[in-house]
Write a structure and sequence with these properties.
single chain
């Protein structure tokens, strides 16, 4: 699991990811963000969970959580951290204006993000 996932994913989703994999856990969270979801004990290929995750991941989920009701977390902090990492990576080769246009955010938001990342990096050097 990557460092951003370990730091920003809610513990419940990390637990689920250990069963079905990170990609499938994120798909589950995206499909049912903060919504109660009853996992059937015996899951079929045409079940909505199987259609979103794939039958293999759905069966793994059912083997552990079958009969339970889950509320997959929304993972807002994770998605924000992932987006910020992508923006910072894009800034390594492109201007703030280009990156702002691509991501549809204000150029000053790019500057603030970069300054915050620089401050955090400076803190790790001390």
């Amino acid at each position: 699991m990557d460092p951003i996932a370990r730091q920003f994913l809610p513990p419940k989703l990390i637990e689920i990811a250990q069963v079905i994999g990170l990609d499938a856990a994120l798909k589950l969270s995206a499909a049912w963000p903060g919504i109660r979801l009853t996992v059937p004990k015996d899951i079929r290929a045409d079940h909505p969970i199987a259609l979103h995750l794939g039958i293999e991941a759905a069966r793994k989920l059912a083997s552990i959580y079958g009969g339970d009701t889950l509320v997959p977390p929304m993972c807002t902090r994770y998605h924000r951290a992932r987006l910020n990492a992508q923006i910072l990576q894009a800034l390594e080769t492109r201007s703030a204006a280009d990156v702002a246009r691509e991501y549809g955010i204000h150029q000053f938001s790019i500057y603030r993000l970069k300054a915050k990342a620089d401050r955090q990096r400076q803190g790790t050097l001390l």
